[in-house]
Amino acid sequence: MLTGFAMGLFRLAVDTPVKLMSGFNYTEGTFLWVVNNIFFQYYSLLIFLVCVVVMIAVSYASKEPSYEKLSGLTFSTTTEEQRAETRSSWSAGDVIGSVVLILIIIGIYVYFSG
User: Which of 10, 68, 71, 98 has the smallest set of CB atoms within 10 Å of its CB?
Assistant: First the structure.
C-alpha cells in the first residue's frame, strides 16, 4: 500500500506545477515529462503492476506467519466458537437493515439497467 501511495504522490507532485503555474512545462523527452504525459489510467495500471510485484517479493522475502496470527482473519480460518460469537452479536436490526440494503441495491440495479 505504501508503494502505491508513494507512486500516486509522485505523480501528483509531477502534475501539480504544470497545472498551477502558467507557462511551466518539463523539457520534452525527460523522465518528468514522460510521467506527466502518461494517461492517468495507464499510470494506474503501472501502479497496480508495481504493487503486485512488491507484494509478491515481500511475501517471498518474509517468513510464513504462524497459524495463530491468521486464525479468524478470513472465514475459512475461523473456529466454530468464533462463528458462534459473531452470530450472537447480530441483532434483529442488523439483519433487517442488511436485507433492506440488499433490496435497495437490487432495486437501483434493476431501475438503471434499462
Answer: 68
The C-alpha cell that represents 35 in the structure block: 510521467
Residues in Cβ contact with 10 at an 8 Å cutoff, skipping those fewer than 6 apart: 35
What does the pLDDT profile of the chain (114 residues) look like in tens digits? Answer: 999 999 999 999 999 999 999 999 999 999 999 999 999 999 999 999 999 999 999 999 999 888 888 888 888 888 889 899 988 999 999 999 999 999 999 999 999 997
Task: Look up the domain containing 103 and give its range.
Answer: 2-62+87-112
Rounded to the nearest 5 degrees, what angle is found at the Cα of 90, between the Cα atoms of 75 and 80? 40
Find out whether 47 and 10 touch, Cβ atoms under 8 Å: no
Within a domain: 73: no
Contact 44, 7 (CB under 8 A): no
CA separation for the pair 48, 31 (Å, rounded): 20
37 domain-assigned: yes
